[in-house]
Amino acid sequence: MAKQEPTKKPIEVRTPLSDADVRSLRAGQAVLISGVLYTARDAAHKRMFEALERGEDLPFDVRGQVIYYVGPTPAPPGRVIGAAGPTTAGRMDRYTPALLARGLKGAIGKGSRSEEVKEALKAHVAVYFGGLGGAGALLARHIQTVEIIAYEDLDTEAIRRIEVADFPAVVVNDCYGGDAYADARTRWGKR
């Protein structure tokens, strides 16, 4: 029987994040996030990027904040939100460095990030968390409140301010260049 490593207790993380918070995180660590997250997917990112190019303000102050790449389903009766699983982060890669430069401290999604984003995470002391793909209904149970704050016409892709409690994620890319996915490929072989 193969030897199993001891399970480590997840680290509790509270938003908004400071540089010190981000510096305390390492690739591969499990976390439970509590506090405010902002939701935004492709269409919202495109609008935010265009606003920045025009010299306009963003719909919310990104400094210290974490964006969750999600387009939740409508809330069923008795719930504040429907299924809320992460979407592929790579689709936001062209927009992410500009948001990090303005103080964004983190993002939650699924899948790998580009080298440009990884370098921007190091340069701006930020972190990328991997969400639990395929578990949208379970993740929604960690969301306590939901408020649309911008781009309501985008429907599911509107920007929402959500409050979460013990939202589970894993640090994929830390501010030191650590990459949990690359570490896993090295450890268990590329598949």
Secondary structure topology:
Elements: E1 11-14, H1 19-23, E2 30-39, H2 42-53, E3 66-68, H3 96-101, E4 106-109, H4 115-123, E5 127-130, H5 136-140, E6 143-150, E7 159-173, H6 180-188
Parallel strand pairs: 1-2, 2-3, 3-4, 4-5
Antiparallel strand pairs: 2-7, 5-7, 6-7
Q: How would you describe this protein?
A:
It is a single chain. This protein is α/β, with parallel strands linked by helices. It has one domain: fumarase (Alpha-Beta Barrel). 24% of the residues lie in helices and 25% in strands. Strands 2-3-4-5-7 form a 5-stranded mixed β-barrel. It is globular, with a radius of gyration of 16 Å.
Overall average residue pLDDT: 92
The CATH architecture name reads Alpha-Beta Barrel
How far from one another are the termini?
Answer: 23 Å
Report the β-strand fraction as a percent range.
25-35%
Strand arrangement across the biggest beta sheet: 2-3-4-5-7
State the total count of DSSP E strands. 7
What's the CATH superfamily, by name?
Fe-S hydro-lyase, tartrate dehydratase beta-type, catalytic domain
**Secondary-structure class:** alpha/beta
Total of domains: 1
Distinctive features:
191 residues, alpha/beta, fumarase, five-stranded mixed beta barrel
Briefly characterize the structure:
With 191 residues, the chain is of the alpha/beta class. Helix content is 24%, strand content 25%. Strand 4, helix 4 and strand 5 form a beta-alpha-beta unit.
